[in-house]
Amino acid sequence: MQKPEFNQWLLAEIGRSPTAFHLTANIRDLLTDHGFTLLEETGPWQVAAPGSYVLVRNGSSLIAFTLDGEDPARSGLRMAGAHTDSPALKVKPNPLQVSHTCVRVGVEVYGGALLAPWFDRDLSLAGRVSWETETGGLGSGLLDFARPVAVIPSLAIHLDREANRKRSINSQTDIIPILLQATPGDACPVFNDILLARLRHQYPDLDCRAILDHELFFYDPAPPVLTGLEGEFITGPRLDNQLSCWTIARALVDAPERKNSMIILSDHEEVGSGSPEGAGGPLLDSILECLFPEPQQRQQVIRRSLLISADNAHGVHPNFTDRHDTNHLPLINRGPVIKINAARRYATTALTSGFFRLLCRRRNTEVQEFVMRSDMACGSTIGPLTATRTGMQVVDVGVPTLAMHSIREMAGSADCHGMHRVLQEYFSLATDDPLWHGWQS
Ligand code: CO
Predict the structure, then answer these.
(1) What is the pTM of this model?
(2) Which of 204, 296, 358, 439 has the most CB atoms around its CB within 10 Å?
């Protein structure tokens, strides 16, 4: 795909994926539409090589792989990973509260969200709900209001003259979205009734007696857009890390000669990855065990496999350049960033980064480096967790981003397309290519 077509596709896909659940379902459909066979974790597998397969756990994490017929114990797997979740405001179990005719929705902060940008936004609401069926069974599905339904108004500056100098945000009391207005004296509406009405609108044949529970997130329904005078930039919600998820999945589909390869997209990175479907959990281990049940063969596969872990990187902000090390200033639209950290908050080694540099050079894509200032704490990602759990070699990379963890983030319109080309090259690397396996120590 050419850059304009790729960007148009990418922005549309992010726009219609408001939560990790929706993202995972949409990427599953992309893959099955391109010939991947859907596997159920609960059933016995019929995995034949050559073939391409996808499976989903918890509706929010996904693994897809291609077996080309060559022995993976000899070839290894060309692997790429990213996370499906993004920071957001998550609805509490019993959320509704009335204050001065405003019906508000109590929320918890999911992940390390930058809270100030959530004020004065048109917000929508989406996620997963469970329900009781007419026969007493358990049902579940995705819900999305898909239009602005709530807002968190700022306090006027006239009522807080110090707002521009020192306004802080209390996550319990200050960021409660307003959903509707109630008539004084009326009882508080029932949240599950509101959800049921929306669900019946979405699914006219719904078999549902009553809503049971929900995992719902407020989100920005304004679509991602190209911006900058020449269309140099992308702004939009959830760029961290849907940019990587979509780019990886698309590269797998588009790779001209897809070799033995695997992608893993995991939920819950923003809250530490500790869950059955998170990168700190057993998902990847259990799939590798099912695919390669013989322990020695499995170890050979792991030792010969490499994971490109893609998660957005901090581009240098022109207004705050002192937050970066002066020799490591990733620029927007100057290519993917290799992330390096002495304390192993990133799993990159000299060999895995060398591999990635040469891979990018093959597609004439520039590469940059990021290292956190030595006097600031470094974030982390799924790379080190996967490396530690499986013993796999990893390179941590990502496209340079500004406003990371804001409700709208900013990246470059050339960087994802560059990454898409590089990953296609990666998934197509022949086993006897001198570049592949060079990273093995
Ligand atoms: Co991230």
Answers:
(1) 0.97
(2) 439
